[in-house]
């Protein structure tokens, strides 16, 4: 019996992305496939598809870990489908420990050809 069989789908991950041209989406889908091969139940979704601001923590906290993949646009700007999420996190009424129980990492994509 493979040791990984006993771990199958006991762990969960969310791969969230922000993208204008689809580059971050491509990486998010690839990360999702890799995680599934590691027997980690995975959801891949855009940042704008997350729950309303009062429940972001609930929607992300249900996962063991979260990977955020964001590709900048223009001259280092956030893509449109990441701006609303960012604004939710900047709310003044948001407690400073709002995301403390969420294991999250980020992966940024950009273009080095800008001056």
- Give the mean pLDDT: 83
The assigned structural class equals alpha/beta
**Helical residue percent?**
25-40%
Query: Any idea what the radius of gyration is?
Result: 15 Å
Given the structure, what is the number of helices?
4
Can you tell me the residue ranges where pLDDT is under 50 for at least 5 consecutive residues?
1-6
| Beta content | 15-25%
Q: Main beta sheet: strand number and arrangement?
A: 4 strands, parallel
Shape: flat
First-last Cα distance: 55 Å
What is the β-strand count?
4
Largest sheet strand order: 2-1-3-4
**From N to C, what is the helix and strand string?**
HEHEHEHE
Summarize the structure.
The protein has 115 residues and is α/β, with parallel strands linked by helices. It has 4 helices and 4 strands. Helix 4 (80-89) links the parallel strand 3 and strand 4 (104-109).
How does this model look, in words?
There is one protein chain. The chain has 115 residues and is of the alpha/beta class. It has helices spanning 3-7, 23-37, 56-61, 80-89; strands at 11-18, 40-46, 65-71, 104-109. Strands 2-1-3-4 form a 4-stranded parallel β-sheet. Helix 2 (23-37) links the parallel strand 1 and strand 2. The radius of gyration is 15 Å and the shape is flat. The N and C termini lie far apart (55 Å).
């Amino acid at each position: 019996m493979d040791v990984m069989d006993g771990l199958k789908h006991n762990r969960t991950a969310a791969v969230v992305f922000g993208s204008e041209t689809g580059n971050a989406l491509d990486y998010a889908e690839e990360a999702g496939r890799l995680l599934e091969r590691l027997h980690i139940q995975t959801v891949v979704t855009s940042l704008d598809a997350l729950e309303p601001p009062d429940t972001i923590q609930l929607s992300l906290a249900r996962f063991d870990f979260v990977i955020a993949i964001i590709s900048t646009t223009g001259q280092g700007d956030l893509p449109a489908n990441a701006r609303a999420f960012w604004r939710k996190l900047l709310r003044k009424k948001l407690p400073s420990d709002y995301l403390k129980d969420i294991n999250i990492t980020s992966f940024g994509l950009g273009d080095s050809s800008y001056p």
